[in-house]
Amino acid sequence: MRPLTLPGQGMLLFRMATLGMLLGILMASCFTFCLSHQNSEFALTNPEKSSTEERERKETTAEEELDPRVLEVFHPTHEWQALRPGQTVPAGSHVRLNLQTGEREVKLQDEDKFRNNLKGLKKGKRLDINGNTYTSQDLKSALAKFKEGAEMESSKEDKARQAKVKRLFRPIEELKKDFEELNVVIETDMQIMVRLINKFNSSSSSLEEKIAALFDLEYYVHQMDNAQDLLSFGGLQVVINGLNSTEPLVKEYAAFVLGAAFSSNPKVQVEAIEGGALQKLLVILATEQPLTAKKKVLFALCSLLRHFPYAQQQFLKLGGLHVLRSLVQEKGMEVLAVRVVTLLYDLVTEKMFAEEEAELTQETSPEKLQQYRQVHLLPGLREQGWCEITAHLLALPEHDAREKVLQTLVALLATCRDRYCQDPQLSRTLVSLQAEYQALAALELQDGEDEGYFRELLGSINSLLKELR
């Protein structure tokens, strides 16, 4: 049975179907038009495929450039000409790189040289860039003679150097001969010292000549070997005997020579003790002599006593502390007083260090330690009144002198503590120096010196005051 359709409704459906078909045809036409006129910039492509094609295109171009059929043949001349990329040159042409322009340049080789090089290649020779050619036999011969040639060259160089030295310098024998003709003799140190001792010991020499001989001798005996050589031919005893001279200058310069010879020279120190040098030095210090002479004599005494415990024993036995006390108390000898205090400090600390070293090494009876134990220096200093003498020297105005006195007071503290406490002048002096050095130390701190000289002195004063309270 057919469905019932109204006439107006059928007409409407027909028109709508027709309109839909027309709209579809129009859209298809527009889409086709867009595809045919689209911009290549916005085209959808495969990146991997595009890069592969580009690489193949470049390789093809490079192969075409390298293809001999494509390259341009350059015909060089005998002058240098620039070679452009893609050009080739005939075989045998001379090509170089111009370092200034960075371009390759080419020219024809010389015909004779080119022919020779071709002949060398055919005969199996090796070309040299300098134009020299060598066969294998030449190389073998050169290697065989290399050592011989090197020796000959070395020999020639040695001979040339020796000849040059002979031209510049003369043999010692010739110089000695010339000096003998000029009355000039080349002497060793030993010969010079013998000559100076003879000059000093000669009765015909004037005072000036004797002083000049001692002055020159002092320069040589500073060396340990020379001082021992002076001992070997008896010159040391001659100088020691010079301490008995009635001339103060001779005593002064004789002591000057002895002080230089004694310094750190045990062998000479021993011979000096046996030769009576210690007694003679103490006699000069105990008698009235010029200040300059006593300075040199005290220098010789210090050199003789340091690091020589046996000499220190003899010094105490001969009343050396009493001699030094009288020297310090003498008017006008303040300069010597500081040197004497320094000597006593060195002797006290030297014995202390020797005992401490023996304890550390656990040596109970070394010979040198036994000798130091026989030096009763500290009891002698207390008995001779050096506790008070040293304390009174603290009133000296020089900072250097005060420093040496302070370190000696500290070294004698165990021996002189009760004497220090009973001395009111010492306490007043220490308090006054404390205030003075506090101000000086403050100035050092302002200048940025954290560990200054005056701070050290102030520390010594503070520690000493603490011990005495």
UniProtKB/TrEMBL annotation:
Q: What Gene3D superfamilies does its record include?
A: Leucine-rich Repeat Variant
Q: Where is it located?
A: Endoplasmic reticulum lumen
Main subcellular localisation: endoplasmic reticulum
Q: Enumerate the residue ranges of region (Disordered).
A: 44-65
Q: Where is the composition biased (Basic and acidic residues)?
A: 50-65
What residue stretch is flagged as signal peptide? none
The answer on whether this UniProt entry bears the keyword Plastid reads no
What residue ranges are annotated as transmembrane?
12-35
Q: Which GO terms describe its molecular function?
A: adenyl-nucleotide exchange factor activity
**Pfam families for the chain:** Fes1
| Alphabetic keyword roster | Endoplasmic reticulum, Glycoprotein, Membrane, Protein transport, Signal, Translocation, Transmembrane, Transmembrane helix, Transport
Q: Name one GO biological process term.
A: protein transport
Report which superkingdom the organism of origin falls in: Eukaryota
Note the SUPFAM superfamilies from the entry.
Answer: ARM repeat
Q: What exactly does this protein do?
A: Required for protein translocation and folding in the endoplasmic reticulum (ER). Functions as a nucleotide exchange factor for the ER lumenal chaperone HSPA5.
- Could you describe the subunit structure of this protein? Interacts with HSPA5.
What family is this? Answer: Belongs to the SIL1 family.
Q: What is this protein identified as?
A: Nucleotide exchange factor SIL1
Task: State the organism named in the record.
Answer: Camelus ferus (Wild bactrian camel)
